[in-house]
Write a structure and sequence with these properties.
Elements: H1 5-16, H2 23-48, H3 53-65, H4 71-78, H5 82-94, E1 98-102, E2 110-114, H6 116-137, H7 142-163
Antiparallel strand pairs: 1-2
Helix pairs in contact: 2-6, 3-6, 4-5
Length: 168
């Protein structure tokens, strides 16, 4: 089997610090590297539509939630800062994909929803994007993919419990 880049890094640390426990680096280093590579790969089809992953996530969140949402609700649901969500929403509004409605009682509060064009775009893109992502993982096989998903779910629950309070 071909060696990954993290295995080389671990070997280099072993040479410099024999006996150093690099087990955390073996997991976290690989997760970080996979994340970076997947981010690049999965953003490519979206870029052809003039979207980035964050904008796609906002459209997808509005679609899957099926109701109006405030920028703050979108920020919490997508794990983004309020400022980042506001900037992304401005772009999506300018493209006619999201509409904004002022709250009846408090004009400072905005309620956001997908326009028909936004709904059509996300409904067209989500199956394409999932098909593309499925092809990226195809080499794992269905059983191994399910096993990896379960292990990552356990890690996520563990990290959310320990680090969840530290997130914005």
């Amino acid at each position: 089997m071909t060696e990954d880049i993290v295995a080389r890094v671990l070997r280099q640390w072993e040479q410099i610090h024999p006996g150093l426990d690099t087990a955390p680096m073996a997991v976290i280093g690989r997760l970080n590297r996979c994340s970076a590579l997947l981010q690049q790969a999965t953003d490519a089809p979206l870029a052809r539509e003039g979207l980035n992953r964050s904008e796609f996530d906002l459209l997808g969140t509005l679609r899957r939630m099926g109701r109006e949402m405030t920028p703050g609700q979108l920020a919490r649901e997508t794990f983004a800062s309020g400022a980042a969500v506001t900037k992304r929403l401005r772009v999506l509004e300018e493209r006619g994909l999201v509409s904004r409605r002022a709250d009846d009682r408090d004009r400072r509060v905005a309620h956001l929803s997908l326009t028909d064009a936004g709904r059509e775009l996300i409904d067209r893109l989500i199956p394409q994007q999932l098909g593309y992502e499925r092809s990226l993982l195809a080499g794992l096989g269905e059983d191994r993919g399910a096993e990896l998903a379960q292990i990552l779910s356990e890690l996520l629950v563990l990290l959310e419990g320990r680090l969840g309070g530290l997130q914005p």
